[in-house]
Amino acid sequence: KGISLKITKVRTPAKPTVTSKSLCASIKLNKVEGATKYEIYRASSKNGKYKLIYTAKKDKLSYTDKNVKINKTYFYKVKAYTGSKASALSSYSKVLIRLDAPKINKSVTATKTTVTFTWNAVKGADYYRVYARKSTKDSWKKIKTLNATDKPSYTAKFNGNTDFTVVAVKK
Questions:
Q1: Are 113 and 155 within 8 A, CB to CB?
Q2: How far is Cα 35 from Cα 80, in angstroms, rounded to an integer?
Q3: Nearest of 40, 16, 11, 21 to residue 93 by alpha carbon
């Protein structure tokens, strides 16, 4: 009589989805059927040495990597396990860590000649640049730079249809 063996290979996970959020890397994993845990690896270059940074339980499909620096790109791969059997590493996903974009509040105060708007403060910002343009065909023109320690608010001279935007900047 022969012996029957069932060999199961652990499926390689799809590459993770990685985004920059609040000066962290937000990592979302793709579920692998039968996986009992996942390992998340990070490198500072595509072909660099990937180091284990987190081990996730089977039902924890997201992780926030807070050990990152602004204006630096990171590369992430994932490995799935079924018991002690491991998959190959996934292909990589990369992310550039940036400041979040300020969100201009919808409540705007306007008179015939001025408009005052506010925005949410952005973690890690050193200052804000306020830009304006008359139409979508025009280029944005910087009209003011404000320190991040100032109130996130600006009053601009207003004469007709003008778009405004605010950019957070790190020195």
A1: no
A2: 6
A3: 16
Express each pLDDT in 38-65 by its tens digit: 999 999 999 999 999 999 999 999 999 9
| Tokens linked to 146 | 């404000």
Q: Which residue has the tokens 């300020």?
A: 102
Nearest to 144 by CA among 134, 135, 155: 155
Task: Identify the CA nearest to 53 among candidates 69, 42, 66, 63.
Answer: 42
Residue 109: enclosing H or E segment and its boundaries?
A: strand 109-110
- The tokens of 54 are what? 């987190």
Residue of 13, 32, 30, 9 whose CA lies nearest to 79: 13
Q: In terms of Cα–Cα distance, which of 59, 57, 162, 153 is closest to 113?
A: 162
Distance between CA 171 and CA 166 in Å, rounded? 16
| Of the candidate ranges 18-22, 75-79, 160-164, the one whose mean pLDDT is the lowest | 160-164
φ, ψ of residue 166 in degrees (nearest 5): -130, 135
The conformational region for residue 151 under phi > 0 = left, psi -120 to 50 = alpha, else beta, is: beta
